[in-house]
Each structure stands twice: as structure tokens, then as C-alpha cells.
Amino acid sequence: MPDSIKTAIVTGGSRGIGYGVAAKLVGEGIRVAITSRSLDSAEKAAAKLNKIKEGFAIGIESDVRNLDAQQNAVATVLEKWGRLDYFIANAGVGHFAPIQELTTEQWTETIDINLTGVFFSAKASMSALADSKGYFITISSLAGTNFFPNGTAYNASKFGLVGFSQAMMMDVRNAGIRVTTIMPGSVATEFSNHQPSEKDAWKIQPEDIGQIVSDLIKMPARTLPSKIEVRPSMPPK
């Protein structure tokens, strides 16, 4: 029988927003499996998390573009810990270029990771989340409602993810599964080859998104904030 300690999967959890969420959850006594396309990156991040609370994190190699890999990640968590309570679909990629220059490979990778990958994550986890009356959280972006030049692929993926998340929410809420999409603005991460520095102090920090996830899962089960837009409170003028 599974014990009472709750568990989570965070895709793309080896750095950035995913790691910030994972660190917050582990700090609050939730076991976390972080996935990455790189097993080495996943295991190194899990080792850091286990310094927060020993034995509360594992790293799993999993590419969200592969349904079998996502199913294996869920199966690994169920085999090790006996339950899955929270799934944070965070893995994402960004390619930014005018439509004339955007390659078919960049388009395909963006849609496959940012949108189809979340579909595969949902398909892999729904049964376990139904058993636990759990929570599925997607990390979208303000780019899911605000379009911009050079954003054809990224906008398409994030607009699609917002729509997917909200429709899925309506599909599964009567089964006791809650679904929320979090839509951050500028976050201080390594996303799109950016290197965070002191100049990013005005931005949302990864741990801030972790706090939002923590607050969501503590909400009374009768209450569902289904879509949350998050912005830096004091951006540069």
C-alpha cells in the first residue's frame, strides 16, 4: 500500500522553472521525480534536491515527445512510491525567428515539446491522477494570449497549450482531477540560451512559480483557479 507522502512529476525539472518548482515541493515534504532528456542532468538535479530532504527526489530520463517514455516515467514513480498526486508539465523550448526564416525543424520541435508533449504527459498520468484525485498543472506563458513578431512557432504552441489545458480541465474535473495553467511573463532562467544575472533581478524568479504551484495544491478541493497570469510587478521602464 502507498504511504501518505504525496508525490509529483516535474517535466524539464533539471533547471529553470522546473527546478524551482521541484525545490519548493521537496522543501514542503513532497517526493518529486524530475524528468529530462538527459539522465545525467536529471540525476544531478535530483542529487541537489536530496540535500534539501534526503530520499525525496529521483531523476528520470524521459523525452516528452515520446508517449512510451512518459508512461515509463509514471510507472517508475508508481513502482517506487506507490502513488502520483501532482504532475507539473513544464518542459518547453523556444525558437524565435520571422516566418520567412523559421525552419520546419524548429517549428516541429516547438510544437512537439510545448504542446504534444503535454498531451502525452496527460495521457500517461490521467489514470494515476484519477486514483489520487490529483492535480495536473501546465506551465504555459503570457505568449499564450499575446502574440509578437518572430513568435509564430512559440505563440502557436502556447496559445494551443492554454486552449488544451482549459478544455482538459472541463473534461476531468468531475473525476476529481484539477487542471490549472500558469502563464508567466519574463522569468530569470536559462530559457532560449539566456544566462541569468543580477540584471534579471526585476524578473519573476523560478522559486516564485514554485510558490504558485505550492499555493495551488493547497487550495480547497472545491476551488479551482484554472488559469493564472503572472507578470513582473516592476519591469524596467
UniProtKB/TrEMBL annotation:
One of its GO terms (molecular function) is oxidoreductase activity. The keyword Amino-acid biosynthesis does not apply. SUPFAM superfamilies: NAD(P)-binding Rossmann-fold domains. Its EC number is 1.1.1.325. It holds the Pfam family adh_short. The keyword Oxidoreductase applies. GO terms for biological process: monocarboxylic acid metabolic process. Residues 6-191 form the Ketoreductase domain. Signal peptide: none annotated. It comes from the Bacteria. Keywords: Oxidoreductase. Belongs to the short-chain dehydrogenases/reductases (SDR) family. PANTHER family: 3-OXOACYL-(ACYL-CARRIER-PROTEIN) REDUCTASE (PTHR42879), 3-OXOACYL-[ACYL-CARRIER-PROTEIN] REDUCTASE FABG (PTHR42879:SF2). This is Sepiapterin reductase. It comes from Dyadobacter helix.
